[in-house]
Amino acid sequence: MKTCELLLWLLGTTLISVYLGGHHHGEQLSRQSLGAFTEGQALIPSGWMIEPQAGEPDASGPDTDPEEPPPADTVIAVLRIPGVGLEVPVFLGTTEYVLRRGAGLVEGTAFPGSTGNVGIAAHRDSHFRSLKDVAVGDLIELGTPDQVLVYRITELQVVNPRDIHVLDDTGEAVLTLVTCYPFNFIGSAPQRYIVRAVVASVLI
What we know:
Layout: H1 2-38, E1 77-81, E2 86-92, H2 96-99, E3 103-105, E4 117-121, E5 139-143, E6 148-159, E7 174-181, E8 191-203
Parallel strand pairs: 2-3, 4-7
Antiparallel strand pairs: 1-2, 1-5, 3-4, 5-6, 6-8, 7-8
């Protein structure tokens, strides 16, 4: 019996160490990326555009080839929510490689700084953990190389993973933050927590 208890204790200790080590490494990568963005070392290539959402004109025109997207480790924006002490780099895409380092721009949503629905996702147990503490009316800052957009939270909701309509183009400049829910769920969380915000001001 004692041997079994010892093995279980060792297994538990090992799993906790692995989790904490991975979490610490992710926080380190996030801080490094924020530093690089601040120093201007990881900015998006000028003129790079995502495919326009429905109803938006194609800025590249019919006879031009779009530029290659920035690499996965390029910071395209910085997301801040001062009220809950959140500051996280935003990368392109939502692969696990990206989400270990920070937040990711959801594929097919508007690019930060452009008109449309900007969808940004991150893990609930790391970079978006503090979303559980936000409230309607709180301000969100989204900094790009050219400007800082200040959003005001207008809605908080819980949806099912298949309810991807929350990322549809709304015809106006909005920000949608997505993470898994419940925040304290063990394993793969069954729902999604949505934070919707609209532009309140733009700082150049």
